[in-house]
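User: Some background: our group keeps a shared notebook of sequences we're curious about, and every so often someone picks one and asks for a predicted structure to add to the entry. Today it's my turn. The entry only has the sequence so far, pasted here. Could you supply the structure so I can complete it?
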Amino acid sequence: MPIRQALLSDIALALGSIKPSLTTADAHSDVFEAYIFSLILRAAGSEGAMIAFENIHGDMPTVLVFRTSPGYIFSTAQPYGHAVLSFPGKPPLEAHVGVRVAGRSRVLHECDVAVLYRSEADLCRANSVSPRCSKVVLAVECKFYASDIPLGLARAFMGLIGDIQAPGRFFVVNTSSQSAERLLTSHRRGWEHQVTPGSPVLDRLLGSFRNAFKDFKASR
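Assistant: Of course. Here's the predicted structure to add to the notebook entry:
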């Protein structure tokens, strides 16, 4: 099965009866971000979360509209969708694709996939502001390349998490790069490579996401 179709199949599985807005006509990079979103939902479910879906208006959608360029969590340009993650006895969370987050410097950064407190998301929608990085539980930088990942992308990720510093930040790619992996490892940053449907590394990545949710549950 072509890789884009395999990614879309796993996304559809995670959404159940709700259809994804993405198709085989969309860029691999956009589909890959939604695929990582689906893995995060799988990890949350494994940790006991109930998962529901909403659009920007708070309605349950028949089609989950994914962002295909960086955007604001409060944007109503399209009925963008997100997932609501509810762990028993814990504050609810939301999972989003392609939203801007305010770093400690107040500079806005794109998070390819972000999980944040629902209370923060509600505040942002009500006041047309971007989420604070301190309210982001899990953030993933997603890169899909036909060749090895350039070292510069790992360096850019280092700069990103320097401003949105907190546990639960990951650099996830579909290929590999020894130099990028060496850099991230030397700075103790979370990363995973060769991530595709059926890859043997999926269990390890899902475990990393589960650990982020486990830590969230323990701290709240």
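Suggested note for the entry: The first strand starts at residue 19 and ends at 20. The beta strands are 19-20, 50-55, 63-64, 81-86, 93-102, 108-117, 136-143, 169-173, 190-192.
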